[in-house]
Amino acid sequence: SGYLGDRRTILVVDDDPQNRSMITQILEHIGFTIIEAANGQEGLEKVLENQLHLILVDLRMPLLDGFEMVTQLRQQQKLPRIPVVAWSASVLESDRQKIFQAGCDDFLDKPLKLNNLLSTLESLLQLQWLYE
What is the mean pLDDT of residues 19-37? Predict the structure, then answer.
């Protein structure tokens, strides 16, 4: 039903509006504040404009893909280290290595499985879940 502590803010970066909407509904329902971006360039702008606790980023997007967004994000010396979770529907083993080399903290497959998402959030944000 939620988590203990202060409200956390998550940036969801995905070029598919349905994917953003789905994840936004799930996360808002359990108490997160969600900010959305439609591509990596917009995602970088949102990172600079907001105090974020975590970033969920699709890897395959136009303009600036997730790999490049995370690479550029990690080069920003002035920003605090924000956990980044990459997600994608089709990832080769070579891409998985590239995901972590770019600076991602974890990876989730699409279609997203709720239990995997929740355990990743619990781990990276050190959450304690509330149950009804």
Answer: 97
